[in-house]
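Hi team,

Filling in the usual template for the complex we talked about on Friday. All components are listed, including any nucleic acid strands or ligand strings, so the model treats them as one assembly.

SUBMITTER: L.P.
PURPOSE: interface mapping
COMPONENTS: two
RESIDUES: 430
SEQUENCES:
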Amino acid sequence: MARGNAERLDYRRAGARMEAVRGGAVIHPDPGTGVAAFGSVRFVAERVEGEIANRRGIASGGVRVDTARGDTARTERVFYDGDFLRSDVPVAAEGPGYRVDGRGMLARTDGTAIQLTDGVVGQLQMEARP
Amino acid sequence: MTGAIILLAATALPSGPLDFNARNMRIEPRERRVLLDGDVHLTRGDLHVTGEHAIAEYAKQSASARKARARKAEAAAGGQTVERFTVRGNVRVQRGSRTATGEQGVVDVKGQTLVLTGTPETPPVVRDGAETLSGERILLRLDSEDVDVIRPRVVLRRSLADEGHAAPPTPVKVEADHLVLLQAHRLARFTDDVVLRRGDAVARSPRMEARYDADGQLTTLELRGGVDVRQGDRRATGESADYDAQARTLVLQGDPKLYDQGDVLTGDRIDLALDSKEVRVERARGRLRPEAHKREAAAQ
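RESULT (copied from the run log):
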């Protein structure tokens, strides 16, 4: 289930086109799905344009994702294309046990895998020595 | 090689985050792991590990931790830690002057160990300068720098005491089923089917300890549990044997016996000089057949 809000929303029924300014959405994933490992996921973006019927869109102007698990990701823009979220600009992410900067991103919308691409630098938290 | 390894200063792997870079990183939250691909470089303190792929596996969270997280979401942030990472493909490990290579390296963070494996064609190797130690499986202890090797193959180059010897240095090669290097004790302990080769001399024994001085130079080899030494036609046996690296002599004790082309000698102790092939027997008794050595005398 997803809920959203925006400062301004234009929606055209023809083609199910949507444009939102300063929009946000929260997804509460179904148990057992890949996304469930993150808990609820909150998206915030300066601008969102999309074709809902075609499952396609662009979030831009600064995009931020936060999860209940403690993950945070920031990037300038994200493309949504059916089963994938993709970014071709730098992405900074951190979460439980990791912090990473990548030059791009490719993620499955079912949450089973998130890939930072084209050169990544970061840190993994190691178990404390006994 | 063992001497070189033993010389290295022991510094525990510092706690804290592991720095990495790679071409791609894949986060798989359900499997609690992170996969790194392409030119992977991992760094922690003075430990550098490179390879083609790496998998970092996170520790399972306890039930109490999960309950705490449920109560307070922010508690989860930074709450997961990597307990093990596996690096595959042209793995190279560097720490100080020591480097190691293999096909796979597994770091157990809690256990503070790094296990290197390879293939029969390209076994894992630890190098320090020109010195090399290879084996079927090499376990490096990251907190003590002790090393545990399955089926080691070692060339004891640092055992070559040159002073006062006209003969060129002869490498001592050792094979065994198991080797443990105890850094703090300057000791290399070989066990199970130990085979020592030096020039044409071959010694076999169930176990052997190599001891080093503060400079990493081999001082003695102590073979125990029954020793069989062969050099050309000559064979010697005893309960124990001590090799003095400086004198280049092997001293057999414990019912020592020497068999040499019909000669059979026994005594309290038999000293074999491996370079000159001279033999000294204390409280000797036995049988000599000088006619068997006529050919040697003529050759001299």
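MY TAKE: Strands of chain A lie at 2-12, 17-27, 41-51, 56-67, 72-81, 84-87, 91-95, 98-108, 114-124. The mean pLDDT of chain A is 88.

Thanks, L.
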